[in-house]
Model the fold of this input.
Amino acid sequence: MEYGEERVVALVDMDCFYVQVEQRLNPALRNTPCVVAQYKTWKGGGIIAVSYEARDHGVTRNMWVDDAKNLCQDLQVARVRELHGKADLTHYREASVEVIEVMSRFAVIERASIDEAYMDLTAAVQQRLKDMSVNRIDPSLLKTTYIQGYPQSSSELEPHTEDLVFDKEEQRSRGLHQWLASLTPSSLGEQSSAGLQLTVGAFIVEEMRAAVEEQTGFRCSAGISHNKVLAKLACGLNKPNRQTILPLASVTELFNSLPIGKIRNLGGKLGSSITETLGVENMGDLTRFSQAQLELHFGDKTGRWLYDLCRGIEFEAVKPRQLPKSIGCSKNFPGKTSLATKEEVQFWLHQLALELEERLTKDRDVNGRVAKSLTVGVRQLGDKRPSSFSRCCALVRYEATKISSDSFAIIKSLNTAGNQQAAWTPPLTLLHISASKFSDAPSSGGITGFLSTETSLSQSRFSTSQLSNKSSLDAKSVSPCKQQHGTIQSFFQKATERPTIQKDGEEEVSVGGKASPAPKSASESHSGAERRSSDVSESPRRHIKSFFQKRSTERSSSMKNSLNIVEKNNSEDCVPVVSPSRTQCENPDNEQATDVELNPNPPSGASEDLLTCDRCSQEVLAWEMPEHNDYHFAMDLQKSFSSSSSSSAATTSCNISSSSSPPPLRGGVTGSAQSSRVKTKIRGQSGPAAKKLRSQGGSASTLDSFFKKN
Done:
């Protein structure tokens, strides 16, 4: 097998796909001159698809419907549906998905467009060759297959063959038989035969095309060769509803008369540059140049690629992809309909964003992926290019308002009239937005999901530990709280709902998050559980304090265990969980008493590791000072919400700072006091400025109600 003949690649192209979709929706359109047009505001609308019956009358794409009817009086017109003021292609996209699903059963698929797909048949061909038990291929299995370059004329056997005029189907049959005859029995036994591989690949494509027509009703054409470039060329040689094999040996004859711009990837600037630089028109003319000459003009990589390509050799892989790489929508505004005001630009950007949001949301739900990049493109009046400006930005979320505002921010610099003017200069004749760079959608995201998950896990552990205690109540009696709370409030509340260790039937302490209930009578357990449930439901505002207290209690217990500090008094080993009443939380005068109850034990540790808080004069471990300051900040913030006015709130905050006592913090010696003091940044005494109340009357808001409200 020669260089470049290792693979079998096919391109499948649906025949006038939009017309076939409309004919399936309306069977009366079958076998009639038919076109698909969008809009009808000017000359009946523009034609975007033409049936082969209409093409015989000279009707082409991009023609106006009124002009087409002058060429074909019996022309049938199917209209594209409209949504958000533009063409809605949903029916065609859904039909394309049907076709791709059938094709994917036969080989690796790379979707190229809404009506095209590449197939890598190499593996499927190798498997078929292993299973073949006959030494010849029946021509009836390839009843719609053409062989490019066949039938070949022989001056000795058929001196006047070139003068004979054959029917196209007869030429196809003769060429196929001649091709199959060239596959000698010896080559049939060799799996490396390039011709045999192409033939078996064509047989697989015949089966695939038949399956597509049977299951969807759509017909398609195909090209079979050794790479993408040749497969695409072969596909267009014999349409409709036919397929063509393009052997490497037939490439030279084809390229001698094929313009460079007709080759895949050479229809743009590179093709024009080749024509201007080298003074050539056809692809075959490039074979006159050496690889060194091509590399000199176009660089090493491009020159080497062109040297192989003009000989029919190319190695671009068929990438498995059944989903489009991007999802986008656009609208043209030709002539007098061009967008000349800022309001018009914003309106149509929003309409495009609405469609994009719907399609992206559906794609995320069906395919489990999300786009990360947003591309905006425009064309200005007088510019003949497909797009005169294109820029990208991050796609933050699937929301039409956000998409349209980001898009406008990207293109507003193009308005030479100025941002303060209502006009838009120069007017726009095209708007295009698209989303790309897809990745797998996260299973759950955001802080809400995180907090909700943490809360549910905490409640689940609590219920499990209570059910394990056979002498206690049933699970319903010890439910942590029947009342539903907001996500952030529940995050703080979970600290008070964790399982605890009971000692002497009086106090509760949690150690390491594990519950080990002490023996207790059922009646006492019942009353205790009811009291805890009542405390939680009646005093939701205590959750922030309980959160800080719980953290401090756990750390204090952990440090005591690590230092083997054994307290002689049982009452000193347990920290009572005190639930301050609603009045205490709301009344600043009771704040000192509440904090004293929450802080029965001073921190234990070496004297050199202790720092004195400037706000409450309590000794705090140096490495705990940041959290201690956070406690003061939280308390000041809560007071700022409940203050009646700015002046009274500032006075109250100052009183609390001098009288309140923070919760206990863990003790122990873990480092030098000097290094700890250097690393610790102590806040100033002044707290945050008190906020003004929204209204002078009514009940004051608190920090918990703020979280709950939001």
Remarks:
- The chain has three domains: 14-92, 95-309, 326-442+482-642.
